[in-house]
Amino acid sequence: MFTGIIQEVGSMIDVKRQDKAMQLTIASEKLTKDMHVGDSISVNGVCLTVTSFTPHTFQVDVMPETFHYSSLSNLQSSEAVNLEPALQPNGRLGGHFVSGHVDTTGSILSIRDESNARYIDIAVTKGLQYLMSKGSISVDGVSLTVFEVREDTFTISLIPETRKATILGDKKAGDLVNIEFDQLAKYMERLLDHRKSPQPSGITTETLAQHGFLD
């Protein structure tokens, strides 16, 4: 579990591809100081597992499912990535609950600056039902507030600190970003769908009688 508050911008040292799997070696000066093999770490919003590390780098594996559903498949050596370690029980929840399980990718349509804000329009092909103005969303692992929702796009607004502390400040039109929709919205949809068409429990008066619950 993560919060969407990026702790460090790392750099890709090596990208090894094998069919639809990858092994990534990432440079990190901050997070490796308190790292263990098996730790969960968010890389551009994708929850991955640390397989090895040195004082200045760590390695993670990308499985075929993650390769298919995220933008990690496009990573190149020397590219910057957003990094966040898993939330500790006594940590601050500064953003919102982010699982690191990417729902889809979005394509940046346009970027415009207005005063101290940078507005980014992002196109997605699914999941717009989870979005609402002032709601939460994770973009490349960054917890953000949805500024506006339209038919097949939504807009986020970046403050100067977010542009400086994450890779979103360097994005350009045409770039792909990892999208994770708000978990609460997805749980609510699942609950409502279940209430509309509840599944039979399999418990009948006959089975109750067979097991001695009815005379």
From TrEMBL:
Gene3D superfamilies reported for this sequence: 2.40.30.20
Pathway the protein acts in: Cofactor biosynthesis; riboflavin biosynthesis; riboflavin from 2-hydroxy-3-oxobutyl phosphate and 5-amino-6-(D-ribitylamino)uracil: step 2/2
Keywords per UniProt: Repeat, Riboflavin biosynthesis, Transferase
Keyword Repeat assigned: yes
InterPro entries found in the cross-reference section: ATP_synth_asu-like_sf (IPR023366), Lumazine-bd (IPR001783), Lumazine-bd_dom (IPR026017), Riboflavin_synthase-like_b-brl (IPR017938)
Lumazine-binding repeat start and end residues: 1-96, 97-192
Listed CDD domains: Riboflavin_synthase_like (cd00402)
Annotated ranges, domain Lumazine-binding: 1-96, 97-192
Pfam families named in the record: Lum_binding
Enzyme Commission designation: 2.5.1.9
Record field: catalytic activity: 2 6,7-dimethyl-8-(1-D-ribityl)lumazine + H(+) = 5-amino-6-(D-ribitylamino)uracil + riboflavin
Keyword Repeat on entry: yes
Reported function: Catalyzes the dismutation of two molecules of 6,7-dimethyl-8-ribityllumazine, resulting in the formation of riboflavin and 5-amino-6-(D-ribitylamino)uracil.
Protein's UniProt name: Riboflavin synthase
Organism expressing this protein natively: Terribacillus saccharophilus
